[in-house]
Amino acid sequence: MLDVVASRKQARARLPVKPPEHGELQLADGTRLVATIWRPDTAETLPVLLMRQPYGREIASTVTLAHPSWYAAHGYVVVIQDVRGAGDSEGDFEALANEAEDGAQTLEWARNLPGSNGKIGTYGFSYQGTTQFLALAGGGKPDAMAVAMASWNPVADWASEGGLFRTAMASGWAAQMARLKAHRLGDKQALRELAPGKDWTDYFTFLTARPDLSHLPSWARGDVAANPSGLLNPPPPVPLLQTAGAADLFLRGTLAADTAFRAVSPETTHLILAPWGHIGWNRSSGAARLEAGAEFSVDRAQLAFFDHYLKGLGEMPAPLRAYDAGTDDWREVPLADLRGPASRHFALSSDGLAATLLSDGRLCEPFDAEFEEGFDVIVHDPLKPAPLVGGVVGTPPGPVDTGAHDDRADVACYTTDPFACAQTLIGQAEAKLSVGIDGNVTALGATLALVTAEGASIALATTVAPVEAGRCRLTFEGLCRTLKPGEALRLAIQVAPCPQFLPYPALDLPEPGVRAATVTLCHQASEFLLPMKDLGQSDA
Predict the structure, then answer these.
(1) Could you read off the pLDDT of 203-228 as tens digits, one per residue?
(2) Which among 196, 332, 452, 456 would be 20 to 30 A from 232, CA to CA?
């Protein structure tokens, strides 16, 4: 963990920063890209930090990261560029399509700016993180990359969750980008149709008919213009620091990229795993406020990372640093724990009332199951569907209270006995369900929650997955939580929200209908796998 006192001393030792400069790059095809450059007031040649983003370079990821002048004050030339078709840059914006070639050319331009010592790092969050992977795929050669909450495989971890198209999320972001494009084109009708505050279904209906304005139609077919995981197979051994959020929509992508880079160069691959959502870092996560120990500066961690790899200063960052809300502290986690297989297998058991009584549904060791051949029935009313809450895909996201959700009669809940000894839940959990469906249901959703000794339930993770041939496989990633003696875990199963999540292709929003459907959860052929370690600490 970074030493807090040293970090504060580092923060005070800042250089004065010159007024920002205007920079331009003319690409090989003649397109002009515009950037703003921040420099510290020094005659020393310095490494360059580059960020490329589509929202207007003035924003510069400041919804999560420090202003570029902060990094400049710590001894870097900082370049924030508008990508093709965004801000003041020329060309037509098409999500991800041009970032590989444009990014590679920009890297070499930025590396050779006046005042550069030839070393260059890239940084940025979300789209600005995926542009880093794509620049690498285009032949760019950064010396270090700090990627925060970004996509590694846009089809699998951005457009999708569990193999289902994220219709609502994708429509909201597509509308945001289409508004920017409509402003550039002077398309007043599109601006009226895309006015902020409308329901996402309005955006979806409009944009799926406007492929000239938006990438949404192609994404809804499962076709994304560029895929870093496919282009970088394997990636080159570039030092990489990633920030992952347990409630972030890109969680799966961050973990997948970590696996890919670590397989090539484990000693230069680093990961920060926090309980944050996509926006709202440090101590905030969704609607919940975390404990005081969760406070952490990603900016200082990135600065230490760049200082080490670009300046040869300081110690090498830890391979994996994670926050554990159960102990309210940050700790270095063995990689084998995060990557290891599930160690505990639980059976679903009930007297058939898991959707009616919280006390009926149980997660128990298979040899303890009293009703191994039993089943539970969920009745799904399309006019009053159960929402998902908490985790990555719930509303609100993050570690929120799931009590009201668990009390619904269209949610089946299965709870372990309270653990007698402290347990660490770390890695990936998986529910393998045997399912029978009578009616219009194609996918299930699930929540993994912590149940406190007082009976409150707190979401740890959420996901959705399709039902195929009577089976549904639901996975929960990025888990890191110590359970105290007396605490338990709960698996809550429901019908996946529709049309928020749809099977591919998803070019039309289906009518929910008015007829109820039934979902039968068969205990005997179902199991829940948990990555747990017994810490051997009891109340005694």
Answers:
(1) 999 999 999 999 999 999 999 999 99
(2) 332
